[in-house]
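Incident log, structure service

09:12 report received: a user says their structure output differs between two submissions of the same chain.
09:20 pulled the input from the user's history:
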Amino acid sequence: MKQVLFKDDDIIEFTTLQTQCVYLCEKKMQMSYKYIKECSKELASKLTQRGWRRFGHYFSRPSCEGCSECISIRIDAKDFVWGRSKKRLDKKNKDIKIIIRDISLSDEHLKLYEKYHIYMKEKKGWEYYKIDDKSYKELYINGSLSFSKEVAYILDERLIGVDLIDIFDDGISSLYFYYDPDYRDRSLGRYSIYKEIEFAKKNSIRWIYLGYSVKDNSSLNYKLKYEPLEKLKNSPSINEDAIWD
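09:34 re-ran on a clean worker, output below:
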């Protein structure tokens, strides 16, 4: 008997109107969404394999007419080979304590999140929106179940980085990472990806799902440096096979 992952009334689906693309200034963007109040680990995994990204109860995927610049990628953690940069970062960050725990919220989280986004606004022109408890919960805590974790990077009892991930049987979905820009010389973003790969190798997990890469966007094209990797070649429905190459 075929397993039923969900009922039709369990999911609310909608697509936004076209707006200015946040990744490429000369483009328009349109996003498709699935709102899933109680999403199982299996369904979340299948959606992730098909290019959907989870934030709270919402899963989103680009559905831009005539544009396919956003490409879902995943790192092959099983066959990933460490280079010299891994040793350098391990040495540089050996004084950092790393804790994997349930996703949480504190004043320290909000202050770090705000500090990071103010820095990215100045550095890369990101739009800045002040976040509060409610917004953070909607984005990162709501919808998080047993498979959702927070990787906390702590230095001298101070939170300096937060990596939000979903852990599935086949892979880790890297949802969002933010850090204290005062420690930008430690390359914490790259270090966090290495730590995800390290965790995946130790736990026989094959893939690291990094979300979208956009060739002409410097905030996203760095992901292509992590090889071996695969790119999603189609936009399949939940009942269609995902084609990765």
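09:41 both user submissions now match this output. Likely a transient worker issue. Closing.
09:42 reviewer note: The helical segments are 41-49, 84-92, 107-124, 133-141, 188-202. The chain has two domains: 8-71, 74-231.
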